[in-house]
């Protein structure tokens, strides 16, 4: 076990013996042995892999399509739209190729009208505002701006 009830982190100054015994019993319920932790980890991993293979499993999974990890030498600006239940967030992440990152973001409140009828018009207006506020709107001379898009609500 990583800790035991006699561990000084679990001793309460001024506690009666009865209170400390109750605390020790409570702490025991949350401590795991290395074997227990390994079993939980293996089961969690199995459930994740199962969820990637088929719908309707205990753990719902979506493939990420991430093929490699960044090295810190990447450069350029990358854009993302995050649409939640109440807000739309836009972000521009600029990588300097030396491990440095600069972010710019803006949050817009999702209107009831947008939720009901004009969602994609609303998104387009927010993107336009975000780009215009930062003087980033393409003039037609540059390549199109690529944006990632995610829904973060059920």
Task: Summarize the structure in words.
- With 154 residues, the chain is of the alpha+beta class.
- The chain is 35% helix and 21% strand.
- It contains 3 helices and 4 strands, in the order H-H-E-E-E-H-E.
- The protein has a 4-stranded mixed beta sheet with strand order 3-2-1-4, with helices on one face.
- A hairpin with a 4-residue loop joins strand 2 (87-96) and strand 3 (101-109).
- The mean pLDDT is 90.
List the helices and strands and how they pair.
Blueprint: H1 17-28, H2 34-53, E1 75-83, E2 87-96, E3 101-109, H3 112-133, E4 147-151
Parallel strand pairs: 1-4
Antiparallel strand pairs: 1-2, 2-3
Which sequence of SSEs, written as H and E, runs from N to C? Answer: HHEEEHE
Please work out how many helical segments DSSP would assign. 3
Head-to-tail CA distance between termini: 38 Å
Helix content: 25-40%
Largest sheet: 4 strands, mixed
Classify the secondary structure makeup into a structural class. Answer: alpha+beta
Strand order of the largest sheet: 3-2-1-4
Poorly predicted runs are none
Arithmetic mean of pLDDT: 90
Can you summarize this structure?
The chain has 154 residues and is an alpha+beta fold.
Index terms:
154 residues; 3 helices; 4 strands; 21% strand; elongated
